[in-house]
């Protein structure tokens, strides 16, 4: 099921109003079909981390596949008026939209890839009107899922192989936030979700325990555990903290004994408050001494990668982690600052003109061209990435310029193997790439992270992975900046 089917409607209007007003402008000025190139990229790794995990491409593909304006969409646009009461959109423009068929080339980095700031996650080339309309929906899909996949990867990394379950739907940013977060968390490495609709749509394993309300709806805690075990003799995980956690664990053990007499085993207990290190250590002792070494201890309660790491350092005996709010809302950084910038425009003579967005800050200046990312590896480890323009001839012995210090140059070509990260996804509007299934994407995340040295993976002050610009591209960019700045200055003087 794709995102358009999920909502059973056209998503052509899932864009900002200004994209449509600009689109009418391009149409009116005869520019609608002018070929353009845009790149979607972010400027900083989220969570002050050393890496990012790309996610969301499958939903982006579905959106592009179903990109067309329905009669309802056009009627809505027709009903809109400007400040003088005049129709905002002209008939001719609406007719143009009616006959619009997606015809762009799209290249993108597959989901589950380790990516870094300034690398295009997606590149789109085609009529500027289409590229423009797609800015906002592509950003909303890729920004959110990439953010959540990265958060989940960090949490899974901290859990060091323990099971991690996503419990976040109730705190997610609305129904689609919950679904997209379940998908992205799975890409990041989470093993299961409590979200049943995500299970149905994405085929993600579903898991769950029970809530405090179950315990509270019985007179006694032990009676509640027994009743649950009667209904689910082989799938019971008891929540032990409703009244007094250590007493709760005693009650769980008593019921586990009765279950064993009847031929079944308690699967686990869940701790949801209090000192999780102390209670898990005590709980483990009590369970082991009572003959239940295989009953696992699951912990939940506002957990994230930092708390998991701290609990592990404290010697907590926790086997599985239920993570909600902080993962699905990316609590400490609620948005990835991905942007979508025009990088080249085809001129009437067929030549590409490089386009660049100036900024006072050098890091915010976009890179022009038709960009690709070349990743160099050595001995099963990533060593550096180079952004180059396909418009410039890149010889095998390429040199890249250090991102922060242009006097430093490096060529990895001799000692390293390399691959180009962006792969063709659409050609002339036809899909030429099919997304792997979710388990394969999850496996890719794991394999990619294993190629990344621990210094880039640590949470505190991680090492910055080198992403350089290919030398000729760097020169072009610098020339263009100088040219644009001097034009600016000349205008000011005049
Ligand atoms: N040993 C520990 N070290 C660090 N943080 C912990 C430890 N144990 C629990 N925490 C975290 O401390 C925070 C507060 O937990 P605590 O149970 O005290 O409050 P609470 O959630 O308000 O409890 P309750 O659900 O009973 O109201 C939670 O994020 C929890 O995960
Ligand atoms: O803590 P999270 O990472 O978001 O994980 C999900 C939480 O949702 C549930 O309780 P809920 O928050 O509804 O109630 P509670 O805080 O009273 O336990 C569950 O018991 C977890 O604590
Ligand atoms: O199954 C659970 O234990 C669960 C599900 C959602 C949120 N909190 C807990």
TrEMBL record:
<dbReference type="InterPro" id="IPR006405">
    <property type="entry name" value="Nic_PRibTrfase_pncB"/>
</dbReference>
<dbReference type="InterPro" id="IPR040727">
    <property type="entry name" value="NAPRTase_N"/>
</dbReference>
<dbReference type="Pfam" id="PF04095">
    <property type="entry name" value="NAPRTase"/>
</dbReference>
<comment type="similarity">
    <text>Belongs to the NAPRTase family.</text>
</comment>
<keyword id="KW-0808">Transferase</keyword>
<dbReference type="GO" id="GO:0004516">
    <property type="term" value="F:nicotinate phosphoribosyltransferase activity"/>
</dbReference>
<dbReference type="Pfam" id="PF17956">
    <property type="entry name" value="NAPRTase_C"/>
</dbReference>
<dbReference type="InterPro" id="IPR007229">
    <property type="entry name" value="Nic_PRibTrfase-Fam"/>
</dbReference>
<dbReference type="GO" id="GO:0005829">
    <property type="term" value="C:cytosol"/>
</dbReference>
<comment type="function">
    <text>Catalyzes the first step in the biosynthesis of NAD from nicotinic acid, the ATP-dependent synthesis of beta-nicotinate D-ribonucleotide from nicotinate and 5-phospho-D-ribose 1-phosphate.</text>
</comment>
<keyword id="KW-0328">Glycosyltransferase</keyword>
<comment type="pathway">
    <text>Cofactor biosynthesis; NAD(+) biosynthesis; nicotinate D-ribonucleotide from nicotinate: step 1/1.</text>
</comment>
<keyword id="KW-0436">Ligase</keyword>
<dbReference type="InterPro" id="IPR013785">
    <property type="entry name" value="Aldolase_TIM"/>
</dbReference>
<dbReference type="InterPro" id="IPR041525">
    <property type="entry name" value="N/Namide_PRibTrfase"/>
</dbReference>
<keyword id="KW-0597">Phosphoprotein</keyword>
<dbReference type="Pfam" id="PF17767">
    <property type="entry name" value="NAPRTase_N"/>
</dbReference>
<protein>
    <recommendedName>
        <fullName>Nicotinate phosphoribosyltransferase</fullName>
        <ecNumber>6.3.4.21</ecNumber>
    </recommendedName>
</protein>
<feature type="domain" description="Nicotinate phosphoribosyltransferase N-terminal">
    <location>
        <begin position="13"/>
        <end position="143"/>
    </location>
</feature>
<dbReference type="GO" id="GO:0034355">
    <property type="term" value="P:NAD+ biosynthetic process via the salvage pathway"/>
</dbReference>
<feature type="domain" description="Nicotinate/nicotinamide phosphoribosyltransferase">
    <location>
        <begin position="164"/>
        <end position="345"/>
    </location>
</feature>
<keyword id="KW-0662">Pyridine nucleotide biosynthesis</keyword>
<dbReference type="InterPro" id="IPR041619">
    <property type="entry name" value="NAPRTase_C"/>
</dbReference>
<dbReference type="InterPro" id="IPR036068">
    <property type="entry name" value="Nicotinate_pribotase-like_C"/>
</dbReference>
<dbReference type="GO" id="GO:0047280">
    <property type="term" value="F:nicotinamide phosphoribosyltransferase activity"/>
</dbReference>
<feature type="domain" description="Nicotinate phosphoribosyltransferase C-terminal">
    <location>
        <begin position="374"/>
        <end position="475"/>
    </location>
</feature>
